[in-house]
Amino acid sequence: MDRELLKGSTPLLLLSLLCEGPMYGYQIIETVRQRTGGTYTLKEGALYPALHKLEATEFISSYWETQENGRERRYYAIQPAGEAFLTAKKKEWNQFVDMVQAFVGPRA
Amino acid sequence: MDRELLKGSTPLLLLSLLCEGPMYGYQIIETVRQRTGGTYTLKEGALYPALHKLEATEFISSYWETQENGRERRYYAIQPAGEAFLTAKKKEWNQFVDMVQAFVGPRA
DNA sequence: TTGACGGCCATCGTTTTGCGAGGCACATTG
DNA sequence: CAATGTGCCTCGCAAAACGATGGCCGTCAA
After folding, report:
1. Which nucleotides of chain D are near protein (any atom < 7 Å from a CB)?
2. How would CATH label the architecture of A10-99?
3. Max Cα–Cα distance, chain A, nearest Å
4. What is the pLDDT along chain B (108 residues), one digit of tens a residue?
5. If one looks up domain B7-104 in CATH, what number appears?
């Protein structure tokens, strides 16, 4: 998968995922990897900066949770503002796909 | 339209357009602007570097043509290698859309 | 005739984003 | 005990698009 295409779609993916419930970083990576059958492996160098940025703009929030074994995990949860933003992003995404489709032609 | 989404899709657009026949820079910009109803204005700073890069890899070729009024235009035309590349890119594009769709959910 | 406008080419520096590599810490398993 | 897996993160780099800018030349109205 060409990485260039991915640019800009990460926040969309993240917000969509978090819409299903809070998740922690490692879990996000694994979930994406599994759901795409391994074709897309979200990298940590892309994930954490994106997550932190989303948090800085208050689209998501985070909190630490201690597991039974004593280890900590940082969970990220979507905020109301994030849901609103997601809605707008989805619309943008659809427009974008339509636009490209208009030039490339319908799916083969 | 969020510019970040566009990243990586420019070569795909360009190649698709040139598949319809040779075009010159200004014409490409105008065509894109008109076909998208103005929502997407391809910028020169994005177009020319992309065009030159496509030419450097021999996916397209270029030639100058003199108009009746004496002015010159630089036309770009797709090459066989470019068509092959376009086919591959299209497939990648479809995979990409499917993937995002899988997370974002089907179109509203 | 001069000046604004539009056609037409292009580059430059900045910003944004993802990537690869690396680092640190602790738990479980062999 | 060592290796592997879980789990967090940062840093420097490369690629791409952006906005600004520049230049050249016709044309058409003032």
Report:
1. 6-12, 15-22, 25-27
2. Orthogonal Bundle (1.10)
3. 54
4. 667 888 889 999 999 999 999 999 999 999 999 999 888 899 999 999 999 999 999 999 999 999 988 889 999 999 999 999 999 999 999 999 999 999 998 876
5. 1.10.10.10
Q: Which residues of A touch B91 (CB under 8 A)?
A: 108
Q: Are A28 and A40 contacting, i.e. CB atoms less than 8 angstroms apart?
A: no
Establish if B72 touches chain A: CB-CB under 8 angstroms.
Answer: no
Q: For residue A2, which amino acid is it?
A: D
Q: Mean of the per-residue pLDDT values for chain A?
A: 94
Query: Domain segments of chain A: what residues?
Result: 10-99
Whether the CB-CB separation of B60 and B75 falls below 8 Å is answered with no
